[in-house]
Specification:
Layout: H1 2-15, E1 22-29, H2 36-53, E2 56-57, E3 60-68, H3 74-86, E4 92-95, H4 99-103, H5 109-112, E5 116-118, E6 133-135, H6 140-153, E7 158-164, H7 167-183, E8 186-193, H8 201-210, E9 214-218, H9 223-234, E10 243-247, H10 256-259, E11 267-270, H11 279-292, H12 301-319, H13 325-332, E12 336-339, E13 342-346, E14 353-364, E15 370-381, H14 386-389
Parallel strand pairs: 1-3, 1-4, 4-5, 5-6, 7-8, 7-9, 9-10, 10-11
Antiparallel strand pairs: 2-3, 11-14, 12-13, 13-14, 14-15
The structure holds P-hydroxybenzoic acid.
The site of P-hydroxybenzoic acid has 11 residues, from loops.
């Protein structure tokens, strides 16, 4: 018995450092229901990152645990985050497609000693709710500011704004208005629709009645955006010459085949296009196509997740796998790398990503496929919404 115990102690002393720890990352997103494709893209981005970079950091092995919140549901998101922290003992929380789901979890981070890496949720204020939040996606302030200049330069002076009535929609409305008025344009009316709106015909009528030359719109990507752009076409607004300006959420690549000519020529501003021409993006696309199975389903949340995993790997490296949320977050402040979207930096003060925003136009390629063609770059954009969020 004594010999056995001594042998056991020796084994721990000698081999202890060699034993791999499992570092768990809890990912919350929509993996079923109408927005399941967006969650599938989180997973594709994660899988692509792990396929290219391995699952191990030193002796530690990364394990990803998924939890499904099908639609924006802050109570469910918070309950699942608590379960991940308490029962699964995750060291990192990540994902979060919808703003309310991220907002609901920020109050538990400090006590849980867990950083949150946001792969999508795009309301500026989220990063101000806890010093443990880092974001690798975009904000609607960041993506909607440049399109205001594009609209004005296209000769449109009167615009009606239409947004989903929640965080990123209100931010988008404010960003567009600020940018457009600065140019000398006028927002003649601002409509906020419930997130659940799926019949857009009455909205299209109000747009026509407003006398505006153009419409600015934001809705969260998914069935909502597909329905809105279809309605814009089917209700004769496109044919009537009312121009549609929006951030790229409205022309995500996975929707382009279904939209067809309805979206052709539409200009949007966004942080990422599948067509982005770079070596880093080619490597990403190859791995992500493989991960998702059907390349036609690949869309922007995959790149938010891919870069989010990069940040988490850096955090694990910096903490040596030990649970220290503040140290992990401090380690990625000011971190720069070349993402599939282009050069990026985690702003040291805000912990939000600084990146290029591209003007893109929906174009039909020689192969007959529609894509977002990048035609102009707004370099190194921070988040103009942070001042408003404070
Ligand atoms: C959000 O809820 O913050 C959100 C969701 C989908 C988007 C953009 C923002 O496309």
């Amino acid at each position: 018995m004594k010999r056995f115990i001594l042998a056991a102690i020796a084994a721990v002393a000698l081999g202890g450092a060699a034993y791999a720890d499992t570092i768990k990352v809890g990912v919350i997103g929509p993996f079923s229901g109408p927005f399941a494709l967006q969650g599938k893209n989180f997973k594709a981005g994660i899988d692509a990152y792990m396929a290219l970079n391995g699952k191990k950091i030193g002796n530690d092995e990364v394990e990803v645990i998924y939890r499904d919140v099908p639609q924006a549901d802050p109570a469910q998101s918070k309950a699942l985050a608590q379960e991940l922290v308490v029962k699964e003992k995750v060291q990192y929380l990540a994902g979060f497609y919808f703003t309310p789901d991220a907002m609901a979890v920020t109050p538990i981070l400090k006590q849980a000693n867990v950083p949150m890496v946001i792969f999508n949720a795009a309301t500026s204020a989220i990063v101000t709710k806890s010093p443990l939040v880092v974001r690798t996606s975009f904000t609607t302030w960041q993506t909607s500011t440049p399109i205001a200049k594009v609209a004005y330069d296209a000769g449109v002076k009167k615009v009606i704004s239409v947004v989903s009535d929640y965080g990123p929609g209100v931010d988008a409305e404010n960003a567009f208005k600020a940018g457009f008025e600065k140019q000398g344009g006028q927002v003649v009316q601002a409509i906020r629709m419930p997130l659940s709106t799926n019949d857009f015909s009455p909205i299209m009528q109000r747009i026509k009645d407003s006398g505006a030359q153009g419409v600015f719109a934001f809705l969260p990507s998914g069935p909502t955006t597909l329905g809105f752009v279809k309605a814009y076409n089917e209700n004769g607004l496109k044919a009537g010459g009312i121009k549609l300006f929006a951030p790229g959420d409205l022309t995500q690549e996975s929707d382009l085949p279904a939209l067809g000519d309805a979206a052709l020529g539409m200009q949007t501003t966004f942080h990422y296009a599948i067509s982005h021409d770079s070596a880093e993006n080619k490597a990403f696309i190859a791995a992500a196509d493989k991960a998702i199975g059907n390349p036609a389903e690949l869309t922007f949340p995959a790149v938010g997740a891919f870069d989010g995993m990069h940040v988490i790997y850096k955090m694990i490296e910096a903490t040596g796998g030990k649970q220290d949320a503040q140290k992990a977050v401090d380690a990625v402040k000011g971190l720069s790398w070349v993402s599939p979207r282009g050069p990026v930096t985690i702003d040291a003060e805000s912990r939000h990503i600084t990146q290029n925003i591209y003007l893109r136009e929906v174009t039909k390629g020689d192969d007959g496929k529609y894509y977002n063609k990048e035609i102009q770059t707004f370099e190194k954009q921070g988040d103009p919404g942070l001042a408003a969020a404070k």
